[in-house]
Amino acid sequence: MEKFSYKELGLVNTREMFAKAMKGRYAIPAYNFNNMEQLQAIVYGCIESNSPFILQVSSGARKYADATLLRYMAMGAVAMIRAAKSPVKFALHLDHGDTFELAKSCIESGFSSVMIDGSHHPYEENVRLTRQVVEFAHANDVSVEGELGVLAGIEDDVVAAKSVYTQPEQVEDFVKKTGVDSLAISIGTSHGATKFKPSQCTKTANGVLVPPPLRFDILEEIEKRIPGFAIVLHGASSVVPEYVNQINEFGGKLEDAVGIPEEELRRAARSSVCKINIDSDGRLAMTASIRKVFAQNPKEFDPRKYLGPARDELKKLIIYKNKEVLGSAGQS
Length: 332
Ligand code: G3H
Ligand code: 13P
Ligand code: ZN
What we know:
Helix content: 40-55%
Order of helices and strands: HHEHEHHEHEHEEEHEEEHEHHEHH
Strand content: 15-25%
Shape: globular
Largest sheet: 8 strands, parallel, barrel
Bound molecules: glyceraldehyde-3-phosphate, 1,3-dihydroxyacetonephosphate, zinc ion
């Protein structure tokens, strides 16, 4: 495969973004994408809310969309932003990279940032693998996110039944030994739309499930040990109840779907958390919209008639998140 630097594509790494977010007490949104409609929604939503952003791609998404096409999609996004005369900048990021080879391949095909997720390995192996990626990435001015602690739920192909909180005693050593630019931590968030079992939640009088609170005490302990260091929160979708209800109203069957309350995400965004990952909420927004179109117009078969409204709903969600939850709107 031909080699490309992200600089030729007009992208940026995350270094300056995170420095500004830390100072300004907001978080950069990292939206996952696999297809054109998601890309349009993310780009137009961030242009309209004047927000820096991170476009992130899992290894599954890279296989789905095709690595070469992805590079052109990122270039297309840069061209769209320029055509709109917008100052918005974005990074193209590998989400949950699991091998050195994958991280290297992404860097050589134009990614400006990579995550190497060695959190499922023993500590020393996590350090070794992360260090190996950092050395290659930094030689190409690409930023690296590492992870300590394990989130419950699905991290790409790896399923963890229980979360293992990040141990604050490890973070300083990990950051020093690996040279990472940011660190994903586990303080009680989880991937997917069913983040908690009903037995882990309390119920309000009207039957709404309230999840266990995030462990801000662990985050504060981490902040004390590595002050000013960029922290990343994965599994941070709110699992917007309106979308879950709409999906179920129009034939879906999402049971016990519960996410992270927005108030907790606002609190995290004001702290040293500089990057907040959102994938599930976008999936829910699109699915809710598509189900409604199909239920109300069973004769419809033009993809633009259902993918178009799904894209519009996702764009609306992105503007809302940037403005009302992460605080990144207006920061470009
Ligand atoms: O953390 C995982 C992301 O939501 C990506 O999910 O591996 O299904 O593309 P995926
Ligand atoms: P959600 O499943 O909560 O959207 O988390 C996405 C994520 O962390 C991607 O890495
Ligand atoms: Zn994740």
